[in-house]
TrEMBL record:
Keywords assigned by UniProt, alphabetized: Amino-acid biosynthesis, ATP-binding, Cytoplasm, Kinase, Nucleotide-binding, Proline biosynthesis, Transferase
Protein name per Swiss-Prot or TrEMBL: Glutamate 5-kinase
Matching InterPro entries: AceGlu_kinase-like_sf (IPR036393), Asp/Glu/Uridylate_kinase (IPR001048), G5K_ProB (IPR041739), Glu/AcGlu_kinase (IPR001057), Glu_5kinase (IPR011529), Glu_5kinase/COase_Synthase (IPR005715), Glutamate_5-kinase_CS (IPR019797), PUA (IPR002478)
PANTHER family: GLUTAMATE 5-KINASE, ISOPENTENYL PHOSPHATE KINASE
GO terms, biological process: L-proline biosynthetic process
Organism, scientific name: Micromonospora endophytica
Sequence similarity: Belongs to the glutamate 5-kinase family.
Lineage of origin: Bacteria, Bacillati, Actinomycetota, Actinomycetes, Micromonosporales
Annotated catalysed reactions: L-glutamate + ATP = L-glutamyl 5-phosphate + ADP
Residues reported in the UniProt entry to bind ATP: K30, S198, D199, T240, G241, G242, M243, V244, T245, K246
Pathway involvement of the protein, from the record: Amino-acid biosynthesis; L-proline biosynthesis; L-glutamate 5-semialdehyde from L-glutamate: step 1/2
SUPFAM superfamilies given in the database record: Carbamate kinase-like, PUA domain-like
Length: 394
């Protein structure tokens, strides 16, 4: 979120909001389960069609003659697989256990993408299904691959429809909610705008159903969130994170320099047209390297490497790779390629990185120089424990 605009007049603010939205060329739109399902569960075809119509509608941001919906490149991040799979499996509400959620997602994802394919076809558009796990956006080769696929789909004029790959994601590595996934996809494709659509029209100062709650029109920085009661999921019972994960997603995207509009699916056309509906989160100017951005926000560490003060100074102060000589202890049962936290002598995490060794190999290497290790064990042991290209400071 950007710096406070002081006492700027509301009209000036609204004009700026409209411009950031209407000039956005690449937009990631996220729709939650609660906006795609009927009160009795199951996919709500009417609402899904309305969303697709909104994405196909021409807005003030259109480039005349463009073949793309709204004159823009659109990536849709859609939840709803689990919700869509409930009725066909005879389940009356969202299951708590992972295996049943995954079975429901397996059934529901096919139905969901089938509905989208039919709805977009009415606008002459082709859709492409992209299912992602956390690993796909943290490991370098997978990340490049995910980026290339999304880029190619956009170049070919298709609408990528992204969801978490629920059927294979394990409890530990799961996003669980699609709000953060959408923010990270926005960073991945270098979007100009992220639109989060839910069943509520904006972020409110507290539960919208509570008397006295007010809509928050814009969030310029954390001070605008002070005192806001950011609650969990709404009454639909099919959403997951409530406002907590939406505000977190807004923090991630704005931290990457991407503005965010949070509003209801019913106001999608107005929001995409730059009208001052919903809540607008101002972006900060900083744009860190996208892949490392994912590492900080999308991963959970699988272990901890304890650094001596010299290693902390090298990694944090001089942005060097981490070598075995600077590590005093290792926790966790990770394998090479996993994310781990680098902690200082007080145990506080200072950086996160992708480790180049299995946990089991490291104790025999600690405190030793790379030349000593190479001489004793072979050239493979000359490698860094964490390469600086795979490190992000926390
Ligand atoms: N401060 C708040 N402002 C707006 N909505 C809130 C707030 N706190 C909690 N909520 C709830 O968050 C719900 C939206 O989240 P969720 O049910 O997870 O939807 P989705 O499926 O769209 O992700 C709203 O229905 C609302 O009841
Ligand atoms: N991947 C899951 C999304 C989880 C979920 O419910 O997310 P959301 O409705 O956005 O809070 C699904 O498709 O059901």
């Amino acid at each position: 979120m950007g710096t406070a605009a002081g006492g700027a007049a509301a009209t000036t603010q609204n004009r700026r909001v409209r411009e950031a939205v209407t000039t956005a060329r690449r937009v990631v739109v996220k729709i939650g389960s609660s906006s795609l399902t009927t009160a009795t569960g199951g996919l709500d075809d009417e609402r899904l069609d309305a969303l697709v119509d909104a994405l196909g509608a021409r807005t003030p941001g259109d480039l005349s003659g463009s073949e793309r919906p709204g004159g823009r490149e659109v990536v849709l991040v859609s939840s709803g697989a689990i919700a869509a799979g409930l009725a066909p499996l005879g389940l009356s509400r969202r299951p708590r256990d992972l295996a049943t959620q995954q079975a429901a997602a397996s059934v529901g994802q096919g139905l969901l993408i089938g509905r989208y394919a039919a709805a977009f076809a009415r606008h002459g558009r082709t859709v492409g299904q992209v299912l992602l796990t956390v690993d796909d956006v943290t490991r370098r080769a997978h990340y490049r691959n995910a980026y290339r696929t999304l880029r190619k789909l956009l170049d070919l004029g298709a609408v990528p429809i992204v969801n978490e790959n629920d059927t294979v994601a394990t409890e530990e590595i799961r996003f669980g909610d699609n709000d953060r996934l959408a923010a990270l996809v926005a960073a991945l494709v270098d979007a100009d705008l992220l639109v989060l659509l839910s069943d509520v029209d904006a972020l409110w100062t507290g539960d919208p159903a509570r008397p006295g709650s007010r809509r928050i029109a814009e969030v310029r920085d954390e001070t605008d969130l002070a005192g806001v009661d950011i609650g969990g999921s709404g009454r639909s019972g099919v959403g997951t994170g409530g406002m907590v994960t939406k505000v977190e997603a807004a923090r991630i995207a704005t931290g990457f320099g991407i503005p965010v509009v949070l509003t209801s699916a019913a106001q999608a056309v107005a929001a995409l047209g730059g009208e001052p509906v919903g809540t607008y989160f101002h972006p900060s100017p900083r744009r860190p390297a996208a892949r490392l951005f994912w590492l900080a926000h999308a991963t959970s560490p699988r272990g901890r490497l304890h650094l001596d003060p010299g290693a902390v100074a090298a990694v944090v102060g001089r942005r060097k790779s981490l070598l075995p000589a600077g590590i005093t202890a290792v926790d966790g049962a990770f394998t090479a390629g996993d994310p781990v936290d680098l902690v200082d002598t007080s145990g506080a995490p200072v950086a996160r990185g992708l480790v180049n060794y299995d946990a089991i190999e490291l104790p025999g290497l600690l405190g030793r120089s790379t030349s000593d290790l190479a001489a004793a064990l072979g050239p493979a042991y000359e490698r860094e424990v964490v390469h600086r290209d795979d490190l992000v400071l926390l």
